[in-house]
């Protein structure tokens, strides 16, 4: 198993981060996991199908378990005493709300109409554009050295806004009635992907620092859990490709066509929000956080809604499945590129 993607040398806000073999060879791991997942899906399709049917309220239990271990070290580093400041720091929150609900949906509609002639494919892509991320994005923020504490606050706001805005926005942009409000799916996703890891991380930090000391927690426990998080990310990739990757083999040209607007949407939203944060003189930590939240998606919500509205084997459901296959390598690349720009923020002295 590869070393952890990053090792925390201190518990301070400006913790030094050292990248290991996992981050250095991340694209190799993605390819290997893709091949392994495709192999499993081809050799044991029945077992993979049954495994993926382990759900509660539309949320995959295997994904929930992997997400817990993926998020645990990130949540263990969150300082609860800084949450009140994060709540008062309304600028980044407002920017992500504007990005997620004012800019992202019509942008995806435009891209879908430009590149996808099939109405079902367009619908699936639009559902992805309507689903702001409320879980895994916190891992990407930590990976990029962004403001995780502020990210926790914004993902909570995103969850509430999704419950309120998702159905009317979907009805408006898709032009269909009876759009289900994914209350249970959004609620369970936030609870399992954010709430439980945050609680467990904070309990572990309190107990272990009181027992072994802060230096041991930062120098021994967190690096060990970062290795576990790396394994969880690789496991999630294998799971995604084993269940959905076979579609890419069966319909490679269709998948490539659907991937074009989804990929462009990620890139445009990422670059646009990051440049806006640069113009507003945000600190790097806030700018990276805003860019990642503003561009990532809650693909579980989009997939679930597409299956309810259009059916399990529909083109819309197929389009939403392409989302995570594109998002993971894009987000990995985004975190690496964001880190390369960090010195620019330090040189110019961002003030927010």
Explain the overall architecture.
The chain has 352 residues and is mainly alpha-helical. It has one domain (6-348): Na+/H+ antiporter like fold, CATH 1.20.1530.20. It has helices at residues 21-24, 26-43, 45-52, 61-76, 83-88, 90-115, 119-129, 137-144, 148-174, 183-212, 214-250, 252-279, 284-295, 299-310, 315-340, 342-348; strands at 6-8, 17-19, 55-56, 59-60. A hairpin with an 8-residue loop joins β1 and β2. The chain is globular and about 55 Å long. Residues 1-19 have low confidence and may be disordered.
**CATH hierarchy: architecture:** Up-down Bundle
**Terminal-residue CA separation:** 39 Å
Written as H for each helix and E for each strand, in order along the chain, the element string is: EEHHHEEHHHHHHHHHHHHH
Named CATH topology: Na+/H+ antiporter like fold
Query: How many separate structural domains?
Result: 1
Task: Flag low-confidence runs.
Answer: 1-19
Q: What is Rg?
A: 19 Å
How many strand elements?
Answer: 4
Shape: globular
* Main β sheet profile: 2 strands, antiparallel
Query: What is the residue-averaged pLDDT?
Result: 80
Number of helices: 16
**Helix-and-strand structural type:** mainly alpha
Helical amount among residues, as a percent range? over 70%
Main sheet: which strands, in order across?
A: 1-2
CATH class: Mainly Alpha
What proportion strand?
Answer: under 5%
């Amino acid at each position: 198993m590869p070393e952890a993607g990053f090792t925390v040398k201190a518990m301070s806000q400006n913790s030094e981060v050292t990248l290991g073999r996992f981050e250095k060879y991340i694209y190799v791991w993605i390819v290997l996991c893709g091949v392994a997942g495709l192999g499993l899906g081809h050799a044991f399709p029945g077992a993979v199908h049954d495994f993926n049917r382990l759900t509660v309220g539309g949320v995959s239990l295997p994904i929930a378990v992997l997400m817990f271990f993926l998020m645990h070290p990130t949540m263990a580093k969150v300082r609860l005493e800084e949450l009140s400041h994060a709540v008062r720091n309304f600028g980044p929150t407002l920017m992500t709300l504007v990005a997620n609900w004012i800019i992202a949906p019509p942008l995806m509609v435009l891209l879908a109409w430009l590149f996808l002639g099939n109405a079902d494919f367009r619908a699936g892509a639009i559902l992805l554009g309507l689903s702001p991320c409320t879980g895994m994005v916190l891992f990407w923020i930590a990976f990029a050295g962004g403001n995780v504490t502020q990210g926790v606050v914004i993902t909570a706001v995103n969850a509430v806004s999704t419950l309120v805005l998702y159905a009317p926005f979907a009805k408006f942009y898709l032009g269909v009635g009876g759009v289900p409000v994914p209350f249970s799916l959004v609620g369970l996703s936030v609870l399992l992907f954010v709430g439980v890891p945050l609680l467990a991380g904070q309990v572990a930090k309190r107990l272990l620092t009181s027992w072994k000391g802060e230096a041991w927690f930062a120098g021994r426990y967190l690096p060990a859990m970062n290795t576990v998080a790396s394994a969880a990310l690789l496991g999630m990739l294998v799971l995604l490709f084993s269940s959905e990757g076979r579609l890419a083999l069966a319909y490679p040209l269709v998948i490539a066509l659907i991937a074009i607007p989804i990929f462009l949407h990620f890139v445009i939203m990422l670059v646009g929000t990051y440049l806006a944060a640069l113009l507003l003189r945000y600190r790097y930590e806030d700018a990276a956080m805003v860019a990642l939240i503003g561009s990532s998606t809650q693909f579980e919500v989009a997939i679930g809604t597409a299956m309810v509205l259009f059916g399990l084997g529909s083109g819309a459901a197929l389009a939403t499945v392409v989302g995570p296959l594109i998002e993971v390598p894009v987000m990995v690349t985004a975190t690496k590129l964001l880190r390369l720009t960090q010195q620019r923020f330090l040189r110019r002295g961002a003030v927010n």
